[in-house]
Design a protein that fits this description.
Chains A, B: Belongs to the FAD-binding oxidoreductase/transferase type 4 family. Chain A is an alpha+beta fold. Chain A contains 16 helices and 19 strands.
């Protein structure tokens, strides 16, 4: 772009520096297509976002909106002939209202910063994706991010009351409300949450907060068979044990963690469950959870109310992906199955790993059935790369067979785009295309993302 | 319609009996337009619904979908040249899965029946609109119904995982999922919840359930000033007191209840708050709630863990509308304001009542700020009728001024249609029209409802 081109974007910061553009050209996913954008734009106000969108529409350039780039499905990957609109300068916490238990924030606020800021008011913003200390709330809203809190608290959508959005034509729309309830019109807020940058650019978010919970009590249960761990998850649900966290890690994941940061997990352990309660009576809930685990066949179930021990255990859980990454190149999956089918899924993953001669670790949010099979392969070997892709597709297909979904929390992006049409029926696929067309008739917003293939604007 | 006409609807039950049609021509709202339909159709399967919609589209007849007719905004009122599609024969509980904590139900199931059926599995379906024993789950989903549970549990939308929907062209679409999490594509489920019959006919609903809570402990707090009651609501929130119910009734409502069913409320009482906790530690939470009420200026705050006493108090709360109805003709409002502005709203309602020389009782869900000002007037006197309408508009306007919404849980229907365009900005209003057009291009589904005026299909 020449100087006149650059000036036409309005007052937003523009960069066409190749190094900058390269670093803004993709998120943290693997196997997802990306290209150098035409420019990186960093507007600092809603009005600047609107100017950028109007100019992009005028030039027929696609707009890929980007938060912190921590996404895992390629939804923020630059496309050929696109600009990247980065929200990092829209980074104000506009207000925190302890009486209404809401906060108003711009999309570029780091999720961890929001959590810290509301904690000073005795409040809690639950959603906690793995990247909570670096991801931004705008990206969380765009992907409807989850995390470890969901078994008790739900996902990002459950905490979004209202939005300010710049639409494809540069017009500014407010959705939702500040009040606890409201049914005036369609729920455009929920439609926009998780729409992966395809319906508008979110410029302000009103989130619901909850009172800060009690310090948690933690349970670590170890199992010598997968089946026993699966039975424990089922029995914990059946018994109505009110947990705020219920995570699982399989043998492969534990062994990777052990070789990175020894915590003393037995090599005979097939899986562990990590559970927490943050209710006021967390001690008795945790004791009950431990009992249920033992009755389901746990080798051991240890309860701890020591904050440092709990942090250590959660830290081990957060090491799952980094530890697996040390074993080679990785491809991270994100499927969600009915809670009762977790063991079926993990067993299938073991079979697939053996068949394809790959290491695949499984960890995830057992309480929700949301699993992250992580395929380790060798990028330098085409056969290994091909095997990784085959394994990925087989796992995704198996999740659907088990009554699950292709993506529990990472989103469709470009990684699962080819699968979306399999999950959706023909009417739902058509409805997606029509909604996309209604919001973005020229198809400039993240074209092709989150829409079942083959994608094209409906004429 | 002649016999050939009647047969063309397929196997669905058809009635053109004027008495039947009259009884299906409106819901329980007042001041809402309605007309005799051309016919009442009662399909007994999804496929029959699809046939009805295809035939309606062929004939250019509008389709007004109706649950039990307990709505309060006129969204199920028959229109000129419409048929009424009643869901009462789609009344099966398809399945209840205790392990996944979900139930699959048809729309004609009475909400109270679903609650009773899942209770046998130790599970709880929280949404509890006032008409819970007669309304149907399909109507609840279509209006995103609330109730007294929302302060803890949320509204109907928070419990809907997935839907089967027949679209305007007769095609059948599934949205959502059975799993706890899932982000594959747009949240069409949330878009359809609360869409008041304008985007499709819901034929099956997958709802999320929760473990059955402990028996509640109840607090009754009486206040000699409205300001003290308002302060108590604010302090209960600030203190993070985890209530499962927080209701308010004003002096006018109490006095109406007292004259219908004497419970011994003091005539000096300006308002009462009724609170419950159903947490395992409900006794200590209720004690804390009573303390907070006293510290905020309550005359009295009584804690009870006696189930019969609690039932009696809730019964009194449920009498609010029937008791006010005895005073004359009534027009029920449903606004939601920030919790901290409840007193401002009630005070304004008192001013409006004085100015218009009307009795207006206020009761509602204090914990959510969702208030039901109930205007008593004389239908036989045009000046009284006009005053009621003026009061209604003034209350709605005041709710918006206070940062609230025109409808907290009853929906827009025909009653608040003229107000929707005031709450939505121009971009949001346009987005509503475009979404409507995407789903129902010929405008046969409940035309005009839930869409900002002036409504017409976009050419």
């Amino acid at each position: 772009m020449d100087d006149a081109d650059l000036r036409s974007w309005g007052p937003a910061l523009v960069s066409t520096d190749p190094d900058v553009m390269a670093s803004y050209s993709r998120d943290q996913s693997r196997f997802t297509e990306h290209a150098l954008p035409e420019a990186v734009l960093a507007p600092a106000s809603t009005e600047e976002v609107a100017e950028v969108l109007r100019e992009a529409a005028r030039r027929g350039l696609a707009v890929v909106t980007r938060g912190a780039g921590t996404g895992l499905s390629g939804a923020a990957n630059a496309q050929r002939g696109s600009i990247v609109l980065s929200t990092h300068r829209l980074d104000s916490i506009v207000s925190i209202d302890p009486d209404e238990q809401i906060a108003v924030v711009q999309p570029g606020v780091v999720t961890g910063h929001l959590r810290a800021a509301v904690a000073e008011h005795g409040l809690f913003y639950p959603p906690d994706p793995g990247s909570v200390d670096s991801c931004t709330i705008g990206g969380n809203v765009a992907t409807n991010a989850g995390g470890m809190c969901c078994v008790k608290y739900g996902v990002t959508r459950d905490f979004v009351r209202g939005l300010e959005v710049v639409l494809a034509d540069g017009s500014i729309m407010r959705t939702g409300r500040r009040t606890a309830k409201g049914v005036a019109g369609y729920d455009l807020t929920s439609l926009l949450v998780g729409s992966e940058g395809t319906l508008g650019v979110i410029t302000e978010i009103t989130v619901r907060l909850v009172p800060r919970p009690a310090p948690p009590t933690t349970v670590l249960a170890t199992f010598s068979t997968l089946a026993a761990a699966g039975a424990a998850v089922q029995q914990l649900t059946r018994a109505g044990v009110r947990l705020s966290l219920l995570e699982i890690m399989d043998r492969t994941t534990l062994s990777a963690i052990e070789s990175m940061s020894p915590l003393g997990f037995d090599t005979g352990t097939a899986a562990i469950l990590l559970a927490q309660s943050d209710d006021p009576d967390s001690a008795s809930i945790a004791a009950l959870a431990a009992d249920v685990c033992r009755a389901s066949g746990a080798e051991d179930a240890v309860v701890s109310d020591d904050g440092r021990e709990a942090d250590l255990l959660l830290q081990a859980r957060r090491l799952a992906l980094p530890a697996l990454e040390r074993l080679g190149d990785w491809l991270l999956d994100d499927v969600c199955v009915p809670r009762t089918r977790i063991v079926d899924l993990i067993t299938s993953v073991e079979d697939i790993a053996a068949r394809e001669d790959l290491v695949i670790g499984v960890f995830g949010h057992a309480g929700d059935g949301n699993m992250h099979p992580t395929i380790i392969y060798d990028e330098g070997r085409p056969d290994s790369r091909a095997a990784a892709l085959r394994a990925f597709d087989q796992i995704t297909a198996r999740a659907l067979e088990l009554g699950g979904t292709i993506t529990g929390e990472h989103g469709v992006g470009t990684l699962k785009r080819a699968w979306l049409g399999t999950e959706l029926d023909a009417s739902a696929a058509r409805a997606h295309r029509l909604v996309k067309q209604a919001f973005d008739p020229d198809g400039i917003l993240n074209p092709g993302i989150a829409i079942p293939e083959p994608w094209s604007p409906i004429a």
